[in-house]
Amino acid sequence: MASVRPFSRDQRTTIIYGMLAIVLVIVMLQLWLLTATMNAYLGGDEAVILPAGLVSLALCGLNVGLLRYVRRMERA
Amino acid sequence: MTEHIYLRRRERESMTTAPDRSPEDQQPAWREDFPIDWPQDQYVERRDFMKFLVLTSVALAVGQFWIVGENWLRRRRGLPPVRRVASLSEIPPGASLVFQYPGELDNCVLVRLSERDLVAYSQKCTHLSCAVIPEPEHGVLHCPCHEGYFDLRSGVPTAGPPRRPLPRITLEVRRQDIYATGVEMRTT
């Protein structure tokens, strides 16, 4: 069975840069979602509130998953 | 010979260069005494920034569910009550009246536009909740805090920072009395 070689530091830095870009985009998307939902809530538009909450939760889960991957990568 | 951090004989993983990328002999002496592993520093900084962003992401998701909770509580409270505001004889055409609806702290403003036209809105500006002032002679509601203007007939913002219309209070005239019957919130 072939052993998996851990990433070098340069490779890990490149991976971190890529992940950081993804996480940054997701956080901006969540921020937009929060402001849009608040506007809808204050305007009495209730239909979007729960779906927006679930989408935000899913995006948060994706971010936590990426962070867990980084921790796993460092332990390897 | 002293071991130097810029020499290539070090392990590839821990090799580093000074931030100005100039050769070793041009570096100040303190750099030899206090070597900094720049690539490692860069990696750790990016990783910590990513952790901070993930924490922000969690906070945003919590905020989103706070809105869900607030909305659930609002629905549980049900429809606002029907409440008498004033009698028609108390407000001549062109006059206005401040009243509280649906709660005791929710100020609203009633304006009699003509003999038959009555409008009422929440007095809280949709920008930052300052009290709006009716100006029937100009056909507007004016928010003096940030110079916001709303159309008096529709409550729609016409100038300044507000983007949402004022919540409209639905009215009913029974005999000679004016009753508030509900709050109509709008996004456009």
Poorly predicted runs of chain B are none
Topology-level CATH name of the largest domain in chain B:
Rieske Iron-sulfur Protein
pLDDT average of chain A, as an integer? 91
- What number of domains of chain A? 1
Q: Could you estimate the helical fraction of the residues of chain A in percent?
A: over 70%
Order of H and E elements of chain A: HH
Record field, number of beta strands of chain B: 10
Q: Quaternary state, please?
A: heterodimer
The amount of beta strand of chain B, in percent, is 25-35%
String of helices and strands of chain B: HHEEEEEEEEEE
Going by CATH, the homologous superfamily of the largest domain in chain B would be Rieske [2Fe-2S] iron-sulphur domain
Give the helix level of chain B as a range of percent. Answer: 10-25%
Please give the count of helices of chain B: 2
Number of strands of chain A: 0
Spatial strand order of the main sheet of chain B: 5-6-7-8
- The coarse silhouette of chain A is elongated
